[in-house]
Amino acid sequence: MEHGNQSMVTEFVLLGLSQAREAQLFLFFLFLLFYSLILPGNILIIVTIQSDPRLSSPMYFFLANLAFLDICYCSVTPPKMLSDFFYNSNTISYRGCMAQLFFLHRLGGTEVFLLLGMAIDRYVAICHPLHYASLVSIPICGAMVVVFWCLGFVHSIIQVALIIPLPFCGPNKLDNFFCDITQIVKLACTNTYDLEFFMFINSGLSALISFTLLIISYVILLFKVRMGSTEGKSKAASTCITHIIIVVVMFGPAIFMYCRPFQDSPLDKLVAIFHSTVFPLLNPMIYTLRNKEIKHAMWRLLGKLEANYKSLERRSGCLKSICNDLC
Q1: Which of 24, 86, 175, 326 has the greatest number of beta carbons closer than 10 A?
Q2: Nearest-CA neighbor of 122 among 247, 208, 230?
Q3: Cβ atoms 257, 272 nearer than 8 A
C-alpha cells in the first residue's frame, strides 16, 4: 500500500503476553484446557434450552442467545492467540487486524443490547406479570434479537470506517495479543485527538451509560421484589442478582479499557484477556449455576443421552451376537 510518499504498514506485530517460549507454551496449554472445559458447557446450555419444552420462556431464549454470542465473541481473538503461542508467531495482516476489530465490536455491541433486552424482559415479568405473556413473546424476542444484531453492526462499522482511512507508516508493534482501537489509533501517522474523543463516546461513554442504567434498573427491581408477595420472591431476586453479576463481569473490563485516554496501563493485558477470553465464556455458566431449572434440564438431557448410548451399545452387542451365530 502507498500513501503519498510513505510506505504503509501491511502487517502488525503482536507483542503478546510473553516473549519467553516456555511461558508461551504454558499459556497455550492453560487456555486450551480452559476452552476444552468451558466451551462445551456453553454449547450444552444452548442444546438444553432448545431441546427442553419447559425452558421455552423468553428469559431462556435470551440466555441461549447470550451463550451463542459469547461463543462467537471468543472465536475472534483466542484462536489467533493460541496459534501464536504454539507456533511462536506474532504477526497479523492489516486486513486480519481490521477484521478482528470489526467482529469484536460487532459482537460486543450486540451483547450490550442483548443485556438491555434481558433487563426489559425482567422488568415486564416483575412489574407487569399479568401482561407478560402478551407483551413479551418468543416472536417479539426474536425480532428484538435481530434489531440488536443490526445495532451491533452499526456500532462496529462506524469504528472500522473511521480507522481504515488512517495512515499507518510505522511503527507497527501492538503491545497486546489482538487488535483493538485503543492500540491501533495510537500507531496512526496523524493527529488522532478528535478520533479518540469520538471513540471514547462511541465505546466508553456508551458502555458506562448502559452499565449505569442496567444496575439502577436491577436495583429498583430488587427493591420491588423485596416489597412484593412471598410467592416467587426468592426466584425473582436470584435472577436479578445473577443479571447484576453478569452485567458487572461484562461491563467492568470494557469501562476500564474504553473510558479513559488511550494510554498504556500495566493492567491492560490482564483486563483484555479476561474481557475477550475468560469472562464471555463464564457468563452463561454463572447464569446456569444459579438457576435450578436449567441444571435440572441439563441432568435430564444428559440422562437421555446416556440411556440412548446404553441402548445403542445393547443393539450393537445383539448384532455382534447374531453375526457370530451366523458365522
Answers
A1: 24
A2: 247
A3: yes
DSSP annotation of 17 reads S
Q: How does pLDDT run along the chain (327 residues), one tens digit per residue?
A: 444 334 478 889 888 787 788 888 888 898 888 888 778 888 888 888 888 888 888 888 998 999 899 889 888 888 888 888 888 888 899 999 999 999 999 999 999 999 999 999 989 988 888 888 888 888 999 999 999 999 999 999 998 998 988 888 878 888 888 888 888 888 888 888 888 888 888 888 888 999 999 999 999 888 888 776 655 677 778 888 888 888 888 888 888 888 877 777 777 888 888 888 787 777 777 877 777 788 888 888 888 877 776 777 677 666 666 666 666
The SS3 assignment for 93 reads strand
> In Å, what is the CA distance from 319 to each residue of 75, 307, 316?
42, 18, 5
| 316 beta partners | none
DSSP for 154-188 reads: HHHHHHHHHHTTS---S--EESSSS--HHHHGGG-
Q: Which residues pair with 91 in a beta bridge?
A: 13
Distances in Å between the Cα of 308 and the Cα atoms of 44, 303, 313 are 17, 9, 9
Whole-prediction pTM:
0.85
Half-sphere exposure of 211 (CA within 13 A, CB side): 19
Alpha-carbon gap, residue 268 to 250, rounded angstroms: 16
DSSP, collapsed to helix, strand or coil, labels residue 241 as helix
Q: Got the DSSP string for 281-300?
A: HHHHHHHHHT-HHHHHHHHH
Contact assessment for residue 270 and residue 253, using Cβ atoms and an 8 Å cutoff: no
Q: Which of 6, 8, 21 is nearest to 93 (CA)?
A: 8
Contact (Cβ atoms closer than 8 angstroms) between residue 189 and residue 1: no
Q: What Rg do the C-alpha atoms of the chain give, in angstroms?
A: 24
Give the 3-state secondary structure of residue 10.
coil
